[in-house]
Amino acid sequence: MKTTAVSFRAAKGQRKLSMLTAYDYTTARLMDACQIDALLVGDSLGMVMLGYADTLSVTMEDMIHHCAAVARGASRPLIVCDMPFMSYHLSPEQACANAGRLLKEGRAQAVKLEGGADFAEHIRLMVRASIPVMGHLGLTPQSINALGGFKVQGKAPEAAQKLLDDARALEAAGVFSIVLECVPAPLARLVSQRVNVPTIGIGAGPDCDGQVLVWQDMLGMVSGLSPKFVRHFAEGGETMQQAFNAYAQAVQNGTFPAPEHCYGMDEEVLEKLR
Ligand code: KIV
Description:
By secondary structure, the chain is an alpha/beta fold. It has two domains: 5-234, Phosphoenolpyruvate-binding domains (TIM Barrel), CATH 3.20.20.60; 239-271, no CATH class. The chain is built from twelve helices and eight strands. The protein has an eight-stranded parallel barrel, surrounded by five helices. Helix 6 (120-128) links the parallel strand 4 and strand 5. Helix 8 packs parallel to helix 9. It binds 3-methyl-2-oxobutanoic acid.
Protein backbone atom coordinates (compact mmCIF):
# COMPACT_ATOMS: atom_id res chain seq x y z
CA MET A 1 0.00 0.00 0.00
CA LYS A 2 1.24 3.48 -0.90
CA THR A 3 2.24 5.57 2.13
CA THR A 4 1.05 9.17 1.90
CA ALA A 5 1.58 12.09 4.26
CA VAL A 6 -2.00 11.47 5.43
CA SER A 7 -1.51 7.76 6.20
CA PHE A 8 1.91 8.51 7.74
CA ARG A 9 0.33 10.97 10.16
CA ALA A 10 -2.58 8.62 10.91
CA ALA A 11 -0.15 5.87 12.00
CA LYS A 12 0.62 7.72 15.26
CA GLY A 13 -0.41 5.52 18.16
CA GLN A 14 -1.20 2.63 15.79
CA ARG A 15 2.27 1.37 14.83
CA LYS A 16 5.90 2.51 14.70
CA LEU A 17 7.06 4.25 11.52
CA SER A 18 10.38 3.59 9.76
CA MET A 19 12.17 6.05 7.51
CA LEU A 20 15.57 5.73 5.80
CA THR A 21 17.49 8.22 3.75
CA ALA A 22 17.77 7.51 0.00
CA TYR A 23 19.65 9.47 -2.63
CA ASP A 24 19.63 7.40 -5.82
CA TYR A 25 17.49 5.20 -8.08
CA THR A 26 19.09 1.80 -7.34
CA THR A 27 18.91 2.10 -3.57
CA ALA A 28 15.38 3.52 -3.75
CA ARG A 29 14.30 0.46 -5.81
CA LEU A 30 15.75 -1.89 -3.19
CA MET A 31 13.99 0.00 -0.39
CA ASP A 32 10.73 0.14 -2.37
CA ALA A 33 10.59 -3.65 -2.13
CA CYS A 34 11.02 -3.56 1.69
CA GLN A 35 8.73 -2.41 4.47
CA ILE A 36 10.16 1.10 4.93
CA ASP A 37 7.35 3.66 5.34
CA ALA A 38 9.19 6.74 4.05
CA LEU A 39 12.34 7.62 2.12
CA LEU A 40 14.04 10.86 3.09
CA VAL A 41 16.13 12.52 0.41
CA GLY A 42 18.14 14.19 3.15
CA ASP A 43 20.56 17.04 2.63
CA SER A 44 22.96 14.64 4.40
CA LEU A 45 23.61 13.69 0.76
CA GLY A 46 26.11 16.55 0.82
CA MET A 47 28.19 14.55 3.29
CA VAL A 48 27.59 10.89 2.38
CA MET A 49 27.23 11.24 -1.40
CA LEU A 50 29.22 14.36 -2.26
CA GLY A 51 31.93 14.34 0.43
CA TYR A 52 31.33 17.80 1.96
CA ALA A 53 32.21 18.34 5.63
CA ASP A 54 28.65 19.52 6.41
CA THR A 55 25.28 20.07 4.69
CA LEU A 56 25.62 23.80 4.05
CA SER A 57 26.84 23.65 0.43
CA VAL A 58 23.94 21.53 -0.81
CA THR A 59 21.86 23.34 -3.45
CA MET A 60 18.27 23.15 -4.66
CA GLU A 61 19.59 21.63 -7.90
CA ASP A 62 21.38 18.87 -5.91
CA MET A 63 18.17 18.06 -4.04
CA ILE A 64 15.99 18.05 -7.16
CA HIS A 65 18.49 15.86 -9.05
CA HIS A 66 18.69 13.23 -6.29
CA CYS A 67 15.00 13.37 -5.36
CA ALA A 68 13.90 12.78 -8.96
CA ALA A 69 16.17 9.70 -9.11
CA VAL A 70 14.66 8.35 -5.87
CA ALA A 71 11.13 9.04 -7.12
CA ARG A 72 11.88 7.05 -10.31
CA GLY A 73 12.95 4.10 -8.14
CA ALA A 74 10.28 4.03 -5.43
CA SER A 75 6.52 4.27 -5.73
CA ARG A 76 5.31 2.72 -2.45
CA PRO A 77 7.00 4.67 0.39
CA LEU A 78 6.33 8.35 1.06
CA ILE A 79 9.12 10.44 -0.48
CA VAL A 80 10.19 13.38 1.68
CA CYS A 81 12.79 15.83 0.37
CA ASP A 82 14.91 18.12 2.55
CA MET A 83 14.89 21.85 1.84
CA PRO A 84 18.57 22.82 1.67
CA PHE A 85 20.25 25.60 3.66
CA MET A 86 19.05 29.08 2.62
CA SER A 87 16.27 27.75 0.37
CA TYR A 88 13.56 28.74 2.92
CA HIS A 89 15.15 31.15 5.40
CA LEU A 90 14.48 34.44 3.60
CA SER A 91 10.67 34.50 3.54
CA PRO A 92 7.54 32.33 3.53
CA GLU A 93 7.24 33.08 -0.21
CA GLN A 94 10.80 31.86 -0.92
CA ALA A 95 10.10 28.73 1.14
CA CYS A 96 6.85 28.01 -0.67
CA ALA A 97 8.34 28.55 -4.13
CA ASN A 98 11.29 26.26 -3.43
CA ALA A 99 9.12 23.58 -1.77
CA GLY A 100 6.95 23.71 -4.89
CA ARG A 101 10.03 23.02 -7.05
CA LEU A 102 10.89 19.96 -4.95
CA LEU A 103 7.39 18.58 -5.67
CA LYS A 104 7.16 19.67 -9.33
CA GLU A 105 10.72 18.93 -10.50
CA GLY A 106 11.95 16.47 -7.86
CA ARG A 107 8.61 14.59 -7.59
CA ALA A 108 8.82 14.68 -3.77
CA GLN A 109 5.53 14.09 -1.96
CA ALA A 110 6.48 16.15 1.11
CA VAL A 111 9.30 18.45 2.21
CA LYS A 112 11.26 18.73 5.45
CA LEU A 113 12.77 21.86 6.93
CA GLU A 114 14.85 22.51 10.03
CA GLY A 115 13.70 24.92 12.74
CA GLY A 116 10.85 25.77 15.09
CA ALA A 117 8.42 28.61 15.73
CA ASP A 118 10.48 31.02 13.58
CA PHE A 119 9.29 29.08 10.52
CA ALA A 120 5.60 28.77 11.45
CA GLU A 121 4.50 31.32 8.83
CA HIS A 122 6.59 29.59 6.15
CA ILE A 123 4.96 26.25 6.99
CA ARG A 124 1.45 27.75 7.00
CA LEU A 125 1.94 29.10 3.49
CA MET A 126 3.28 25.77 2.21
CA VAL A 127 0.44 23.82 3.83
CA ARG A 128 -2.04 26.30 2.26
CA ALA A 129 -0.44 25.44 -1.09
CA SER A 130 -1.14 21.72 -0.37
CA ILE A 131 2.52 20.90 0.32
CA PRO A 132 2.90 18.44 3.23
CA VAL A 133 5.68 19.59 5.57
CA MET A 134 7.78 17.60 8.06
CA GLY A 135 9.52 19.58 10.82
CA HIS A 136 12.99 18.92 12.24
CA LEU A 137 14.03 19.93 15.79
CA GLY A 138 16.93 19.25 18.17
CA LEU A 139 20.26 19.00 16.39
CA THR A 140 19.59 20.82 13.14
CA PRO A 141 22.75 20.32 11.06
CA GLN A 142 22.17 23.43 8.90
CA SER A 143 22.70 25.47 12.12
CA ILE A 144 26.02 23.77 12.88
CA ASN A 145 27.89 27.09 13.03
CA ALA A 146 25.36 28.63 15.43
CA LEU A 147 25.13 25.47 17.58
CA GLY A 148 28.93 25.10 17.82
CA GLY A 149 29.10 21.47 16.67
CA PHE A 150 27.17 18.23 16.35
CA LYS A 151 25.93 17.99 19.97
CA VAL A 152 22.94 16.64 21.89
CA GLN A 153 20.29 19.37 22.19
CA GLY A 154 17.65 20.18 24.83
CA LYS A 155 19.47 19.14 28.00
CA ALA A 156 19.26 22.49 29.85
CA PRO A 157 15.84 23.56 31.24
CA GLU A 158 15.34 26.52 28.84
CA ALA A 159 16.50 24.50 25.85
CA ALA A 160 14.15 21.63 26.74
CA GLN A 161 11.22 24.05 27.15
CA LYS A 162 12.04 25.74 23.82
CA LEU A 163 12.12 22.40 22.05
CA LEU A 164 8.69 21.48 23.43
CA ASP A 165 7.30 24.94 22.52
CA ASP A 166 8.78 24.64 19.02
CA ALA A 167 7.19 21.21 18.55
CA ARG A 168 3.80 22.67 19.52
CA ALA A 169 4.33 25.63 17.16
CA LEU A 170 5.18 23.27 14.28
CA GLU A 171 2.09 21.19 14.98
CA ALA A 172 -0.11 24.31 15.09
CA ALA A 173 1.41 25.49 11.80
CA GLY A 174 0.32 22.22 10.15
CA VAL A 175 3.29 19.84 9.91
CA PHE A 176 2.32 16.17 9.49
CA SER A 177 5.37 14.89 11.42
CA ILE A 178 8.46 16.09 13.27
CA VAL A 179 12.02 14.67 13.20
CA LEU A 180 13.77 14.86 16.60
CA GLU A 181 17.55 14.60 16.19
CA CYS A 182 20.02 14.06 19.08
CA VAL A 183 17.59 14.82 21.87
CA PRO A 184 17.67 13.11 25.30
CA ALA A 185 15.31 10.12 25.24
CA PRO A 186 13.10 11.34 28.15
CA LEU A 187 12.54 14.72 26.43
CA ALA A 188 11.74 13.01 23.11
CA ARG A 189 9.22 10.82 24.96
CA LEU A 190 7.55 13.88 26.51
CA VAL A 191 7.38 15.73 23.17
CA SER A 192 5.94 12.59 21.54
CA GLN A 193 3.23 12.48 24.22
CA ARG A 194 2.40 16.19 23.94
CA VAL A 195 2.00 16.52 20.16
CA ASN A 196 -0.53 14.73 17.98
CA VAL A 197 1.71 14.26 14.96
CA PRO A 198 4.27 11.43 14.74
CA THR A 199 7.76 12.18 16.00
CA ILE A 200 10.56 10.46 14.09
CA GLY A 201 13.71 10.05 16.14
CA ILE A 202 17.37 9.86 15.24
CA GLY A 203 19.40 9.70 18.42
CA ALA A 204 16.21 10.45 20.37
CA GLY A 205 15.46 7.13 22.05
CA PRO A 206 12.83 4.42 21.63
CA ASP A 207 9.69 6.37 22.55
CA CYS A 208 9.41 8.42 19.37
CA ASP A 209 6.63 7.35 17.02
CA GLY A 210 9.20 6.22 14.45
CA GLN A 211 12.89 6.19 13.62
CA VAL A 212 15.10 7.43 10.79
CA LEU A 213 18.71 6.57 9.96
CA VAL A 214 21.13 7.49 7.19
CA TRP A 215 21.39 4.27 5.17
CA GLN A 216 25.18 4.40 4.84
CA ASP A 217 25.38 4.58 8.65
CA MET A 218 23.09 1.60 9.30
CA LEU A 219 24.92 -0.49 6.71
CA GLY A 220 28.34 0.27 8.21
CA MET A 221 29.61 2.05 5.11
CA VAL A 222 31.06 5.13 6.78
CA SER A 223 34.59 4.75 8.08
CA GLY A 224 35.65 6.30 11.39
CA LEU A 225 33.63 6.68 14.57
CA SER A 226 29.87 6.17 14.27
CA PRO A 227 27.55 8.32 16.38
CA LYS A 228 26.30 6.56 19.55
CA PHE A 229 22.77 6.22 18.11
CA VAL A 230 23.77 4.21 15.02
CA ARG A 231 23.39 0.44 14.86
CA HIS A 232 25.04 -1.45 11.97
CA PHE A 233 22.28 -3.72 10.65
CA ALA A 234 24.87 -5.23 8.30
CA GLU A 235 28.58 -4.72 7.60
CA GLY A 236 27.87 -3.49 4.08
CA GLY A 237 31.12 -1.55 3.74
CA GLU A 238 33.17 -4.66 4.52
CA THR A 239 31.09 -6.79 2.14
CA MET A 240 31.58 -4.26 -0.66
CA GLN A 241 35.33 -4.03 -0.09
CA GLN A 242 35.65 -7.83 -0.09
CA ALA A 243 33.78 -7.90 -3.42
CA PHE A 244 35.91 -5.09 -4.92
CA ASN A 245 39.10 -6.95 -3.91
CA ALA A 246 37.78 -10.29 -5.20
CA TYR A 247 37.07 -8.60 -8.55
CA ALA A 248 40.53 -6.99 -8.71
CA GLN A 249 42.18 -10.35 -7.96
CA ALA A 250 40.04 -12.23 -10.49
CA VAL A 251 40.98 -9.71 -13.19
CA GLN A 252 44.67 -9.99 -12.25
CA ASN A 253 44.75 -13.80 -12.21
CA GLY A 254 42.61 -14.14 -15.34
CA THR A 255 39.69 -16.00 -13.75
CA PHE A 256 37.35 -13.18 -14.74
CA PRO A 257 35.82 -13.04 -17.26
CA ALA A 258 35.15 -16.78 -17.53
CA PRO A 259 33.64 -18.43 -20.65
CA GLU A 260 30.08 -17.87 -19.39
CA HIS A 261 30.69 -14.12 -19.36
CA CYS A 262 31.81 -13.98 -23.01
CA TYR A 263 29.94 -13.51 -26.30
CA GLY A 264 30.87 -15.98 -29.08
CA MET A 265 30.83 -15.50 -32.86
CA ASP A 266 31.03 -17.51 -36.03
CA GLU A 267 34.63 -18.71 -36.60
CA GLU A 268 34.13 -18.22 -40.35
CA VAL A 269 33.63 -14.53 -39.91
CA LEU A 270 36.94 -14.30 -38.11
CA GLU A 271 38.75 -16.39 -40.72
CA LYS A 272 37.60 -14.08 -43.51
CA LEU A 273 39.02 -11.03 -41.84
CA ARG A 274 42.20 -9.69 -43.58
O1 KIV B 1 19.55 14.98 6.03
C1 KIV B 1 19.24 14.00 6.72
O2 KIV B 1 19.66 12.85 6.49
C2 KIV B 1 18.37 14.21 7.87
C3 KIV B 1 18.20 13.07 8.83
C4 KIV B 1 19.42 12.90 9.65
C5 KIV B 1 16.99 13.23 9.66
O3 KIV B 1 17.85 15.26 8.03
